[in-house]
């Protein structure tokens, strides 16, 4: 008996492969990097650059889900994704991800410059090969090192506009790099049973809850200090300086609450959930303040 032909992939499943929630933050930070640059490209070039970064992020997300479909099937929060749910096959996800990656990098080179295209390619390869393939299943430092992948967008946006790497976008890279561990570790604390079930060595699974909470506080303090650094270095004005100082103080306060929490059950981890939610607001607000500062104060 001949098995029925597979139905074509629904566009919503392909869209879900791109991790749209993550993509929104990627696109926003990239746009802010572009808008904060001292040279503004023509509108169509700027739009194309941001589109390429979005497509590159989508490609990385699709290839991540292609490779981790077995892990996603073991975790409650990811079991309904297109691949573990059986709505897409792995070959479709692989072709979709590779196609998006090549298209985004080639278009970036044609529309802007070779350096921006190289950085975009590096960010995709770093997320897929270094984080997803190498680090994710091997070390509790996966998020620490792998966080570099998500730190590229503002740097790429800046380089797409200017064609060169300068100190401010490097500091923006560092801020996101340092922001990533407390952001994801806060999440991993109240979903650690998922990671344990999938044998993913996230920090709470390997080092324990208390050690993870201490690490969150340490990284939060370092991140808050790094976020203020562009102001005394003369790279931004007082608007950014005041905003990031206030935002950093709130972030550290939330991290202290997490560090002092002794709850072990997910439903009792309200400080962790508050920090995770605020961490997203923090990054959006910080980059908004950067753009406002650059446009109003030059």
Automatic annotation (TrEMBL):
Swiss-Prot/TrEMBL keywords: Cell membrane, Heme biosynthesis, Membrane, Transferase, Transmembrane, Transmembrane helix
Enzyme class: transferase
Pathway annotation from the record: Porphyrin-containing compound metabolism; heme O biosynthesis; heme O from protoheme: step 1/1
EC number: 2.5.1.141
Membrane topology: Multi-pass membrane protein
Extent of the signal sequence: none
Annotated TM spans: 21-39, 45-67, 88-108, 114-134, 155-179, 216-233, 239-263, 275-297
Reactions catalysed: heme b + (2E,6E)-farnesyl diphosphate + H2O = Fe(II)-heme o + diphosphate
Any one Gene Ontology molecular-function term assigned to this protein's record: protoheme IX farnesyltransferase activity
Primary localization class, coarse: membrane
Compartmental location: Cell membrane
HAMAP family according to UniProt: CyoE_CtaB (MF_00154)
Other notes: Carbon 2 of the heme B porphyrin ring is defined according to the Fischer nomenclature.
Function: Converts heme B (protoheme IX) to heme O by substitution of the vinyl group on carbon 2 of heme B porphyrin ring with a hydroxyethyl farnesyl side group.
PANTHER family given in the database record: 4-HYDROXYBENZOATE SOLANESYLTRANSFERASE (PTHR43448:SF7), PROTOHEME IX FARNESYLTRANSFERASE, MITOCHONDRIAL (PTHR43448)
Family the UniProt entry places it in: Belongs to the UbiA prenyltransferase family. Protoheme IX farnesyltransferase subfamily.
Name of the featured protein: Protoheme IX farnesyltransferase
Organism: Sphingomonas anseongensis
Highest classification ranks of the organism: Bacteria, Pseudomonadati, Pseudomonadota, Alphaproteobacteria, Sphingomonadales
Gene that this sequence comes from: ctaB
């Amino acid at each position: 008996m001949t098995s029925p032909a597979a139905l074509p992939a629904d566009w919503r499943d392909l869209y879900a492969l791109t991790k749209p929630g993550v993509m929104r933050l990627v696109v926003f930070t990239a746009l802010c990097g572009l808008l904060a640059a001292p040279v503004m490209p023509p509108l169509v070039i700027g739009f194309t650059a941001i589109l390429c970064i979005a497509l590159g992020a989508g490609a990385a997300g699709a290839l991540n889900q292609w490779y981790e479909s077995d892990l996603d099937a073991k975790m409650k929060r990811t079991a309904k994704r297109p691949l573990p749910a059986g709505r897409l096959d792995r070959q479709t996800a692989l072709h979709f991800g590779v196609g998006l990656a090549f298209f985004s990098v080639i278009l970036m080179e044609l529309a802007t410059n070779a350096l921006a295209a190289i950085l975009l390619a590096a960010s995709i390869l770093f997320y897929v090969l270094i984080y997803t393939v190498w680090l994710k299943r091997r070390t509790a430092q996966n998020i620490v090192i792998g966080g570099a992948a998500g730190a590229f967008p503002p740097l790429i946006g800046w380089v797409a506009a200017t064609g060169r790497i300068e100190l401010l976008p490097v500091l923006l890279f560092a801020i996101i790099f340092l922001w990533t561990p407390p952001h994801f570790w806060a999440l991993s604390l109240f979903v650690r049973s998922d990671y344990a079930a999938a044998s993913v060595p996230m920090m709470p699974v390997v080092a324990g809850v208390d050690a993870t909470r201490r690490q969150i506080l340490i990284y939060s303090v370092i991140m808050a200090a790094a976020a203020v650094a562009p102001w005394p270095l003369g790279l931004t004005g007082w608007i950014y300086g005041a905003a990031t100082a206030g935002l950093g103080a709130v972030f550290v306060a939330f991290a202290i609450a997490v560090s002092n929490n002794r709850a072990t059950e997910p439903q009792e981890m309200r400080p962790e959930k508050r920090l995770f939610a605020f961490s997203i607001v923090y990054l959006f607000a910080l980059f908004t303040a950067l753009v406002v500062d650059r446009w109003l104060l030059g």
